[in-house]
Amino acid sequence: MQCLADKWREADATEDILQSARDFNQAMIGREIRAGESLARMKAEDVLQGIQSCMSRGGRILGLPLDSAFLGTRALSEFLGWCDTQDLRVAIEPESRDQALLLISPKECR
Predict the structure, then answer these.
(1) With contact defined as beta carbons under 8 Å apart, do 54 and 62 qualify?
(2) For residue range 43-69, what is the model confidence (pLDDT) as tens digits?
(3) Burial class (CB in 10 A: 0-12, 13-18, 19+), 49
(4) Which domain holds residue 31?
(5) Number of domains in the chain
(6) 79-87 long-range contacts, CB within 8 A, separation 24+
(7) What is the SS3 assignment for 3?
(8) From CA 8, how far away is CA 22, in angstroms rounded?
(9) What pTM was estimated for this model as a whole?
(10) Residue-wise pLDDT tens digits, 87-99
């Protein structure tokens, strides 16, 4: 039994269309790698330093810039999962086509 992608590949099997699909896949892999590196650095440095800064000045919300290209990546999903395990609430606010803002705060006391 064929899946939908198999039928699509058969219908569009010209070389430039196949190359376009390969280029797209490479771009997605590159995006995922960049997102993983950036969010790992954010988790290890920016979140910890930002929380310390918020605590020292009495702030309740930490805002960190996020490249909009990272939206929808596995790396971002993993970062959000990590935040959840740290009892942090995260909202993502689009600012422009290229930039978003991660708003991070402690979850409310239960």
Answers:
(1) yes
(2) 999 999 999 999 999 999 999 999 999
(3) exposed
(4) 4-106
(5) 1
(6) 79/39, 79/42, 79/43, 82/43, 83/47
(7) coil
(8) 14
(9) 0.77
(10) 999 999 999 999 9
